[in-house]
Amino acid sequence: TWTGTPTAQTTVIRFPTTVASIVGRWACGGDDDLPAVHALQDATTLTVVDSARAPAGLPVPDSEVSQDLLFLEKLRIWSQAFPPAPRDRELQDSFSPIGVTEHGASPYVSLSADDAAALADGLTAGEKNLHEALTHGSSPEANGWKLTFHAFDYNLDYFEVGAIDDPQFKIADPRLRIIERAAAAKGGLWGNHPYEAAYIMTYVDDQGTQLNGNRTYTIRLDPTPPVSAFWSLTMYSVPDFFLVANPIDRYSIGDRTPGIVHDADGALTITISHEEPKDATAKANWLPCPRGDFRPVLRMYEPSPAVLDQSYVVPAITRSRE
Fold this sequence. Notes:
This protein folds into two domains: 1-17 and 53-111, no CATH class; 141-321, Jelly Rolls (Sandwich). It is 22% helix and 15% strand. The protein is built from seven helices and ten strands. The protein is globular and about 65 Å long.
């Protein structure tokens, strides 16, 4: 723990573990803004204050553990190195029968074939349950969109610079809190609280059918999302939730996308398809999708109260062609 005296220009951010993740985000207004963003990135450094006390980093998993069980090995050594909050210790201990709390040599190296297969099957089933939580979880819905405003409100213990310690931004239900945290890790790491950014996502079209690149879709935003910062609609594949490679290198579309064309009344109609549209306006407003299943995420940074109180409603994504 650092006990020095900060200068007037220094902000001290403390964290309770020996390892932390730092995510730097810069808002980029387009290609012309890239040099300024790159300069900010180049000027960002991370320096150990006391080199004699540099942390060792993450423990290394046993290389003899099979790929099928590597998740359990990581869970075992990392949850011991960085233990959960006291309220969650009982949950951690409940995994003792499958070796998660064992210290020393990995219990997953010398398992019988039957035991290893049983654990691998359990992990597969758990991942399916997690996908189910993502697609049919507890968040309210509107027009097929899951309003996951509070998906990242699982922190109850540690509030630093910019974080608001307020019950409305905390998930009180302990079981739901664990599920939401796991779903957030699977579906989108490092999300903000809703006062910073509101996230909604959908897997289905206006007919309730899984979104798929074999079809063409549109969504008409009238008006566009009310935000003080910016908004964007980003494309992800399913079930891995990766960005989607495409011929125009467009992974999202939003209020900072150059060349988008608004309708005469100010609304914005976005075309979502795997194949490039032939119509000029549709092409300008095109968000490419994969050929298979996909899930778009709408992010609204510094959302207006109308977003969080749900008086601003995003329409369904409409199927326009089989």
